[in-house]
Design brief:
heterodimer, A: mainly alpha, Four Helix Bundle (Hemerythrin (Met), subunit A), 2 domains, B: mainly alpha, Helix Hairpins, about 75% helix, about 0% strand, elongated
Chain lengths: ~160, ~100
């Protein structure tokens, strides 16, 4: 049952990810990316981690595509130009090299999924990882202020 | 039953797709979108290893949360920079910013 769910999710994730990096139409690419991240949230549910799935859905599958669509429309980039020949060659070479590198991942066969409740994840976040948590909030604040300052329209 | 290898292989394939996108895309927004795929693949690998191998602390899932946070920060700054590139160069393709002096 869960194997079927995994294969269906994985197939659609790969299809939409390939669409997101190859479609010339930028809006379609951004929407494919949103669907990819939405399906990855389903994968997190399959991993027994509803908290991670919820955060993935809220941030990566909702907020980031909206921001991407805004910036696509603000910069009027309807299409991405077709890649140059050397870029295609480099892309395929790097993809093949990475494929060879990641092929060994199939070997990790055994093991059982331990579901993690949002409560456990939250306690771990605020006890074992308290310092990174605070640093992350500072990083978000800095990114927010920095983005506002960078994107501000100059007075001149 | 779904094994850790399934998840790691899927994450590796996502990484391959993202790498291909980073190298072949010419619109800079599309490059940032491919970087997003790369970061998500890494987060998926961390989360799956935590679910299978770390039943007490789930450090990998906490790390996946931080990856999402860093990705959001990186993307907002990147988009702000691209907005400035559009204002100064009129386009956000890679050949618009091929010169050192605008």
């Amino acid at each position: 049952m869960s194997l079927t769910a995994f294969y269906v999710l994985a197939a659609f994730i790969l299809i939409f990810a390939v669409l997101a990096v190859t479609t010339a139409n930028m809006v379609r690419a951004a929407l494919s990316l949103a669907v990819t991240f939405f399906l990855v949230a389903g994968l997190y549910l399959l991993l027994g981690s509803p908290a991670l799935a919820a955060i993935q859905f809220m941030v990566n599958a909702s907020a980031i595509p909206i921001m991407t669509l805004f910036i696509i429309m603000m910069t009027q980039s309807r299409t991405s130009p077709a890649p140059r020949t050397w870029q295609l060659v480099a892309g395929f070479l790097a993809a093949a090299a990475a494929l060879v590198f990641f092929k060994g991942a199939v070997g990790h066969g055994d093991g059982q999924i331990t579901p993690v409740s949002p409560e456990t994840l939250g306690v771990n976040l605020l006890q074992a990882a308290l310092l990174p948590f605070e640093v992350a909030s500072l990083l978000l604040l800095l990114a927010m202020v920095g983005a506002i300052v960078l994107a501000r329209r100059r007075a001149d | 039953m779904v094994t850790l290898g399934h998840f790691l292989l899927l994450s590796g394939l996502l990484m391959v797709i993202g790498l291909y996108g980073v190298l072949t895309r010419r619109n800079l927004i599309a490059v940032l979108m491919s970087v997003e795929i790369l970061l998500n693949a890494a987060a998926l690998a961390f989360a799956s290893v935590a679910a299978y191998r770390d039943p007490q602390i789930f450090a990998g899932q906490v790390f996946a949360l931080f990856i999402i946070v860093v990705a959001a920060a990186e993307l907002s700054i990147g988009f702000a920079i691209l907005l400035n590139v559009y204002r100064t160069h009129g386009a956000v393709t890679d050949d618009a910013i091929s010169e050192m002096r605008g």
